[in-house]
Design a protein that fits this description.
Blueprint: E1 16-19, H1 21-30, H2 40-49, E2 58-61, E3 64-65, H3 67-76, H4 81-95, H5 101-106, H6 111-132, H7 138-146, H8 155-183, H9 185-188
Amino acid sequence: MAKCYGFVPTNNPYDFERVSMRGILQAAMDAGALLETTDLSKVENLVAALGFDTTNNSRILATGPEESLWMSLRAALVTNDDEYEELLEVLEAIEMDEADDEDLWEMDNDADNIVRRAKIAHAAFTALEHGISAKSTLEEDEEILLQNDTTALSCGSRLLVELRSERKRLLRSASWRMAAVMGRPREARE
């Protein structure tokens, strides 16, 4: 009802799940989207060497990963030296004010790499959703909340189930966005 009257924003910038690059990559590995032989420390060091944040400061919004997380994931999935050098050159140009962040986005035009990142993110977001509470699914949480029996849950427990379900809903929405990117990588850049 509150959403209907405009009290609850539909695209809330404060509604996010905080993650680290290692958390994303580990979740993707757990989901089978990333090889188990991937050296996460090496990847994390590579991303940090390029100047991207690898700490727990990255955010997943309902619309998908924030820009810095998407670019960090791009750096983490560099597949060859040429790609690494190209990324490094643009980042150095941005640092020296010879280029801006838009140049970084403009050179992100390889549809295969965009799809690969989206697959990793999709798998990671799905794994993170399931990891929030392995005891219940989003649908089971919603069913619990729909029950009008107030004796079934204390007020505090109900709030915790609501919070848990909102976190799951946010990750599911982000996961769906990544699935859409996999289907249309060129349009996703815009």
